[in-house]
Amino acid sequence: MQFKIKSTTYKISFTFLALVLIAITTGNNKNFLLFLIFAIAHELVHLFFIFRLSVAPERVVFSVFGANISRKITATDNINSEIIINASAPVFNIITGAFFQLFSAFEINKDLFYEISIVNYSLGIFNLIPLYTFDGGNVLKYILLKFINEKITENLLTAISLLVTIIFSFISVYIFLNYQQNFSLFIICIYMFFSIIFKKQNSLDY
Q1: What angle do CA 81, 83, 84 make, to 5 degrees?
Q2: In the beta sheet, which residues pair with residue 12?
Q3: What single string gives the DSSP state of each residue in 87-155?
Q4: Which residue of 71, 106, 162, 173 sits 20 to 30 Å from the alpha carbon of 83, by its own alpha carbon?
Q5: What is the C-alpha to C-alpha distance for residues 202 and 196, in angstroms, rounded to an integer?
Q6: What is the pTM of this model?
């Protein structure tokens, strides 16, 4: 599904749309539905700050891996704005998590509020990992650009991304071999490797 609002083209992939419809119609896995809701909110926060602080995106594609936002920017365009744009959504998730954790102390809907807090903490912390295509990697990139040139920044970020991915891979293997569970960590590690290999210049994953 594709549509255009002013100068920005929005595309929702079939897999993402199918995932949303399945989550809404079945409702069997409450945690998954909550994750989907706040993952969408995460992307909308990014878009809000992009429109407020940067140029309007040319294209926004929503997929099962998040939102890929194409903008005509260079690495040295308003660095402070880019830091805010990339940090905004994880910070939103962490603040939301803290808010619902506070309300989980009360008896009314305490289990639901607690689950919402865990989902948001997970989204916020995971996206702050310093890895290409992750919010944390983009934040680190623009912080480094304040002090060193773009080429050194790219090389350093690639090295950090590889190191983080290798560490996650060892952790996933250890957990799987010792506890025979959390196979999903392998999937995450594969995504991490591909995010490093197929990083794009003028489009950013959020």
Answers
A1: 65
A2: 62
A3: HHHHHHHHHHHHHHHHHTTSSTTHHHHHHHHHHHHHHHHHHTSS-TTSHHHHHHHHHHHTTS-HHHHHH
A4: 162
A5: 15
A6: 0.81
CA-CA distance, 82 to 61, in Å (whole number)? 19
Residues 6+ apart with CB under 8 A from 105: none
In terms of phi and psi (left: phi > 0; alpha: psi -120 to 50; beta: otherwise), the region of 60 is beta
Question: What six digits make up the tokens of 172?
Answer: 């996933």
DSSP letter assigned to residue 183: T
- State how far the Cα of 185 lies from the Cα of 171, in Å rounded to an integer: 9
pLDDT in tens, 38-92: 988 999 999 999 998 888 888 888 876 677 888 877 655 688 899 999 999 999 9
Distance linking the first and last C-alpha atoms of the chain = 20
- pLDDT of 201 reads 45
Tokens of 102: 């506070």
Q: What is the DSSP string of 42-63?
A: HHHHHHHHHHHHSPPPSEEEEE
Q: Which residues of the chain fall below pLDDT 70? A: 16, 19-20, 22-29, 64-65, 74-77, 180-186, 198-206
